[in-house]
Amino acid sequence: MPSFDITSEFNQQEVTNAIDQMNREIVNRYDFKNTNTSVNFSNEIILLKSNTEERLQAADQVLREKFAKRNVSIKFLSNFSDEQTPSEVKREYTLKSGLDKEMSKIIVKDLKDFSKKLQSSIQNESIRITSKKRDELQDAISFLKSKNYKVFLNYGNFRD
Known about the structure:
The protein is of the alpha+beta class. It contains four helices and eight strands. The protein has helices at residues 12-28, 53-69, 101-114, 134-146; strands at residues 3-7, 38-42, 45-50, 80-84, 89-94, 119-123, 126-130, 154-159.
């Protein structure tokens, strides 16, 4: 039976490249001079620092632009926390791979409502979709792409 897997994973190398490009732009831009604006990436955590809230927002915009140019979904940047001290403002993004149980259940329910011919099974942090016909699976992928979930979905491991 034809099948495919749905996951939510980011490309580590592309994120690293986007962060490197962002660092280069921050160093060269005049509006970031003497603001101590920096970005660090390690262990799936992106840490933005700046002297002012305004410069932090500008750095955040640069990060989103670099993600978009590198074809990394900005939906990975939805999980963040802010911290403010008298001399510094910090924003910490936690990049999360994998689908949690709640999101998996929502996706499976939507697929069941879309077509009764599809079988779905939740497997750890991914979902396997099977059907008798390949065309039904392609329709399911198109349907899921048209929905706007709060997480980015990857479609892979397509087998005939």
